[in-house]
Amino acid sequence: MKLDWLRADIASARRASALLVLLLACSMLANVTLAAFAMHMAGRERVVVVPPSINKTFWVESERHFAEIRPPCLRRLLRHLSSVDYFA
Q1: Are 51 and 84 in contact (CB under 8 A)?
Q2: Domain count, the chain
Q3: What is the pLDDT of residues 61-78, one digit of tens each?
């Protein structure tokens, strides 16, 4: 009687571990797919950063363009970003 119960318990543990392995494989496949998509899209998409206090938009593409942003605009942008409550 106890042997049947132990066999059923082992069978259910094997099913649970097989399900976890399947979920892990699906998760890894999704991560690899998203990483490949991100690598493919790198450099194709631009982000427009416009805080509410700045009326003029500007593009930030790379480090060399970072030096072209005027210091007053950069200070206002940094002041805005530091005042945003990210955990609200």
Answers
A1: no
A2: 2
A3: 656 555 666 677 777 877
